[in-house]
Amino acid sequence: MSLKLTAASFLAGVKQSGLVDANRFDALLDDFQRSNINLSDSAALAQAFIARKVLTEWQCEKLLQGRHKGFILGRYRLLSLLGTGEMSAVYLAEHIMMERRCAIKVLPANKVQDTSYLGRFHREARAVASLNHPNIVKAFDVDKQTEGGSDIHFLVMEYVQGKNLGKTVLERSPLGYVELVDYIRQGADGLHHAHEAGLVHRDIKPENLLIDQTGVVKLLDLGLARFFNASDEESLTIKHDEKVLGTADFLAPEQAIDSHKVDLRADIYSLGCTLYYALTGHPPFTDGSLVQRLLAHQTRRPPSIKYDRPDIPEDLLAIVEKMMAKKPGDRYQTAADVAETLGRWLVEHGGTEWRESHAALVAKYAGLHAVSRPATASTPAPAPIASPLLKPVSQDAAPAPSRAEVRPLEIEPPRVEPVSPKPARDSAKATVIAKGATDAGRRTIPVRSSQPVPTVVQQRQWDWEKTLAIGLLSLGTIVVIMIGVWLFGANQGAMTATNTAPANVPSTQTTERSDNNGPQ
């Protein structure tokens, strides 16, 4: 802690900061004096404020540097700096009256004049506010404050105490397969909710998957998200001709070419790269410049994960490779597909420990996020319950539980029920819908025809009758042809006999010519 102020200047800064009201300030000074604290030593005074939890270390550090402005934003008191980025700084704060802790993202004052940055900041606020999911950081408020003639814009969000996936991998690599797969599964659940709301994140990376102290993953930093159903005129990045791409090491091939026209499958590629990072401890491509790495995502296969994790299960390796397919059409088509596939893998490989942790998450969130299918005349609405994955291992004697959809946690391989097909001639297919599946989960599969299947004897009898009929028909055709040929030949013989005269009998034409042309 650098000390640059005298005790008097430090105390004056504390009063001007608004962090301590006047009555409490005077009471604290009396307390310091009774406690024999040196009131002429600014460092000792700072430690006394910290020990009594009146000020934080970060606040005292700034105050000792002579900075006493900017600690109060609207109804919130800033406590410490959590991190900084290209377009904002994030602070730990608390509501002055409610004393509820939160995270506040503040747009730097020098960026306010840039309408593009300000527009993108407001877009992030609207995007986060439109979402409500246990795997996405919640937004509470967005506001601005005028100070010294400048507007300070800020976004108030849920404070998540934990570490992001990038730091977790650096500190604890290699992570266990079950643990890291569950982190990515939760991230896919959050992404699916954002995609359903019409948002593409466009900046999925390990640093944007925040893991709280209970193991719940929170998706954050929607700063590059945009509504993918917005027109070109509504796109701020196009309007201001910007090169907003995301993070090169986790960027989908099509996003580097045109970041304005990507769809949700770009997020699936980036999430696959994040899973690759969690498995290996490094991005898919690490060599070369930024441009070379972007080109590698479009043209090269990443090094096999087996170089770093030779024991990786083959089915998990196949999942990663499909998520990172170069062509969007070759990837999983929705984040829900990714979550379901990873969930199936966890059911098979997770074991008892994972099931118990999953049970705790279900108990925590099922009441808030259970979504039951609407009741119909034939199918009543099911009652909300815990995850169907958590039934006993021995299920023979256990009663079948009622079913409910717990969206972020429903990963049991769904059972299917055939739906009666509409009457149609020569129809051999029917639609089968998985219980708990969305519209994207519907698929058409072949089913048996409803017509009765003939027995073997009936089939053989039918074949014999068909063969006999064909033979008789062929024989009749041959007979008809032969009769026709015989009749035709007889007719030709009769005509030849009639038109031919004997050699010693003059023809009628010759006789007549002789009569007409006789000697004179």
Essential attributes:
6-stranded antiparallel sheet; 520 residues; 16 helices; Phosphorylase Kinase, domain 1; disordered C terminus; alpha+beta; elongated
Tell me what the structure shows.
With about 525 residues, the protein is an alpha+beta fold. Among the domains are: about 1-65, no CATH class; about 70-160, Phosphorylase Kinase, domain 1; about 160-355, Orthogonal Bundle (Transferase(Phosphotransferase), domain 1). Helix content is about 40%, strand content about 15%.
Helix/strand layout:
Layout: H1 7-17, H2 22-34, H3 42-51, H4 57-64, E1 72-73, E2 76-84, E3 89-95, E4 101-106, H5 115-129, E5 139-147, E6 150-157, E7 162-164, H6 165-172, H7 177-196, E8 199-200, E9 209-212, E10 217-219, E11 226-227, H8 236-239, H9 253-257, H10 264-280, H11 290-299, H12 314-323, H13 335-349, H14 351-369, E12 370-371, E13 405-406, E14 416-418, E15 429-434, E16 443-446, H15 456-499, H16 508-516
Antiparallel strand pairs: 1-2, 2-3, 3-4, 4-6, 5-6, 7-9, 8-11, 9-10, 12-13, 14-15, 15-16
Helix pairs in contact: 1-3, 7-10, 7-13, 10-12, 12-13
Q: What is the residue-averaged pLDDT?
A: 74
The CATH topology assignment of the domain at 162-356 is Transferase(Phosphotransferase), domain 1
Distance between the termini: 161 Å
Number of helices: 16
Q: From the 3D coordinates, which CATH architecture of the domain at 162-356 would you assign? A: Orthogonal Bundle
User: What is the multimeric organization of the chains shown?
Assistant: single chain
The gross shape turns out to be elongated
Structural class: alpha+beta
Rg, please? Answer: 41 Å
Number of strands: 16
Major sheet summary line: 6 strands, antiparallel
